[in-house]
Design brief:
Layout lengths: L1 E5 L5 H10 L3 E5 L3 H9 L3 E3 L2 H6 L6 E4 L5 H10 L8 E4 L5 H12 L4 E8 L4 H4 L2 E5 L2 H14 L7 E5 L3 H29 L7 H8 L8 H12 L15 H11 L5 H13 L5 H14 L7
Parallel strand pairs: 1-2, 1-4, 2-3, 4-5, 5-6, 7-8
Antiparallel strand pairs: 6-7
Helix pairs in contact: 8-11, 8-12, 9-10
Length: about 300
């Protein structure tokens, strides 16, 4: 198939390469001469502007966005809208909020343009292993795009699916990322407990490798844990600061709106927020209160 890719970064670039490798004609947006050269070497047709990219696509056109959620998506749609025509398709493969996706879908429908949300997981390993893809949108558009999703997935019949109408793909990916928060937090806490049991002098990489086969906690995240510990057993040089890109917050907010208890995901999110507070006022207050009511010693900072 013929499609354009906007956002050739950490995820978009490898996705475009995988599609090109599978015989699809992919046009990628490039801003520099060096980027042009890189795209050509990867079998991707370079374009120097949004207008250039759209002009190189066969109709009905397909434009895939792999850009940060929020304003950048709306701004890009504003640029594309006058360049596209009825029956063209825009795919949002980023981590947009599903409510924004529903709004954009309604707006584009007035111009006859299909808006498909593709919640995409796989990270930097997707080029090799394939991507997990959760698709939302109308049946007609998704059916037309099937060859693209089959090429990106681990297999044509595995790792992807049309999960529902507009917004359903991004909603499902949002919850996926919330679950990921909880799993990562559990691994982190478990390995921290083992590291603090000094009398056993455990080799954490060895333990991770043992668990990778036959245990009930084996997973790809555990594989990555083992790889990280093999490279850096004490995680030296890594600050205990954990970022979040928003999906965990949205998952917790959705759980509250739906009256669904989600304590593990919520606490995992809160732990990430706490990791960024190197001068925790709340912890200082706890120490001060213990001193006030019990005369407990306070450590000086």
């Amino acid at each position: 198939m013929d499609l354009g890719m906007i956002g050739m970064g950490r995820m978009g670039g490898p996705m475009a390469q995988r599609l090109a490798r599978d015989g699809h004609r992919v046009t990628g947006l490039a801003r520099t001469r060096e980027a042009f050269k890189q795209l050509e070497e990867q079998g991707i047709v370079p374009a120097g502007s949004h207008e250039d990219l759209v002009s190189k696509l066969k109709t009905p056109r397909i434009v895939w966005l792999m850009i940060p959620a929020g304003d950048p998506v709306d701004e890009t749609i504003d640029i594309l809208l006058p360049l596209l025509a009825s029956d063209d398709v825009i795919i949002d493969g980023g981590n947009s909020n599903y409510k924004d996706t529903q709004r954009r879908s309604r707006m584009l429908k007035e111009s006859g343009i299909h808006y498909v949300d593709s919640g995409t997981s796989g990270g930097v390993w997707g080029l090799k292993n394939g991507y997990s893809i959760m698709v939302g949108g109308d049946d007609e558009a998704v059916a037309r795009l099937r060859p693209i999703f089959e090429s990106l997935a681990p297999a044509s019949d595995k790792g992807w699916g049309h999960v529902g109408p507009s917004g359903a793909g991004h909603f499902t990916k949002m919850v996926h990322n919330g679950i990921e928060y909880g799993l990562m937090q559990a691994y982190g806490e478990g390995f921290a407990i083992m590291r603090h049991k000094k009398e056993f002098n455990l080799d954490l990489h060895q333990v991770a490798e043992i668990w990778r086969d036959g245990s009930v906690v084996q997973s790809w995240l555990l594989d990555l844990t083992a790889a990280a510990l093999a490279e850096n057993p004490d995680l030296e040089g890594i600050a205990p600061y954990v970022s979040d890109s928003g999906e965990g917050r949205w998952t917790v907010a959705e759980a509250i709106d739906l009256d669904v208890a989600a304590p593990v995901i919520t606490l995992a999110l809160l732990q990430r927020l706490q990791s960024r507070d190197s001068e925790s006022f709340s912890n200082k207050m706890l120490s001060a209160l213990r001193n006030q009511f019990g005369g407990h010693e306070m450590k000086k900072g």
